[in-house]
Specification:
Length: about 60
């Protein structure tokens, strides 16, 4: 039987689980951004070593 105190305990556990899942998703997103940035830096480094410009620079207005 689900009593009121059991319900609040269950609700608190679910809240922690949801918080953990959200934290995990944020960390995965942050890791993805870091990996993408690293990949772009590696491509830029390779281009510079080969003597090619990595991108066209914009003129400042």
């Amino acid at each position: 039987m689900l009593t009121q105190s059991n319900w609040f305990g269950l609700k608190r556990c679910l809240g922690v689980a949801v918080e953990d899942a959200l934290k995990s998703e944020r960390l995965k997103a942050q890791l993805g951004e870091m990996l993408l940035e690293r990949e772009l830096l590696e491509a830029k480094s390779t281009a510079l070593k080969a003597g090619r410009p990595s991108a066209r620079r914009r003129s400042k207005p």
